[in-house]
Specification:
With 180 residues, this protein is α/β, with parallel strands linked by helices. It has a single domain, classed as Spore Coat Polysaccharide Biosynthesis Protein SpsA, Chain A (Alpha-Beta Complex). The chain has 6 helices and 7 strands; from the N terminus they run βαβαβαβαββααβ. β2, α2 and β3 form a beta-alpha-beta unit. It is globular, with a radius of gyration of 15 Å. It starts with a strand and ends in a 14-residue tail after the last strand. 48% of the residues are buried.
Length: 180
């Protein structure tokens, strides 16, 4: 089974005060490097990082074992980033999507979501939907067609019977919208 991981890191981060793709931990580790590591260590065979706002600067932070894809229409919202990432993974058996703004994410969550074997599986944290999300090849094209504007995959997932995989014992699952 070939698994492609996608990190969504294209947004301008207006509430955050700048592109989250440029964010770092207190000790200087780029959030992008953390996300790539989580996907790699969780079982992804290859990893794509979708950039947009400050694309050139953000791309410099992407580890060499990941590919960079630019979502030219990133300002249209998260759907543009998701479509750009999904377009690179049409040959994957499963795509695992996560956002760059979950720096405490665990590779064990990726492994758990993949181990569910579901065509659509989403990590939940004490019942609250989060990332990563696993999408089988059978859903990739339909999901890309279904998303628009600043809405991600959640409506599609709900409509198509996503399997929720509890991961609250692994991390908070919280996305960071404001600088700490």
């Amino acid at each position: 089974m070939h698994v492609t991981g996608i990190v969504l890191a294209a947004g301008a981060g207006e509430r955050f005060g700048g592109p989250k793709g440029l964010a770092r931990t207190a000790d200087g580790m780029p959030w992008i490097a953390l996300a790539v590591g989580v996907l790699r260590d969780g079982g992804c065979d290859d990893i794509v990082v979708v950039v947009g706002a400050a694309a050139d600067e953000v791309a410099l932070l992407v580890p060499p074992d990941a590919r960079v894809v630019v979502a030219e229409d990133w300002a249209d919202g998260v759907s543009a980033s998701l479509r750009a990432g999904l377009a690179t993974a049409l040959d994957a058996d499963v795509v695992v999507v996560m956002t760059v703004d979950t720096p405490d994410a665990s590779p064990l969550a990726v492994a758990r979501v993949l181990a569910s074997g579901a065509e659509l599986a989403q990590a939940v944290y004490r019942g609250v939907p989060g990332h990563p999300v696993a999408i089988s090849r059978a859903h990739v094209a339909a999901l890309a067609d279904a998303v628009s504007g600043d809405r991600g995959a959640r409506p599609y997932l709900a409509e198509h019977g996503v399997v929720e995989v509890e991961c609250g014992d692994l991390s908070s699952g919280e996305d960071i919208d404001r600088r700490p």
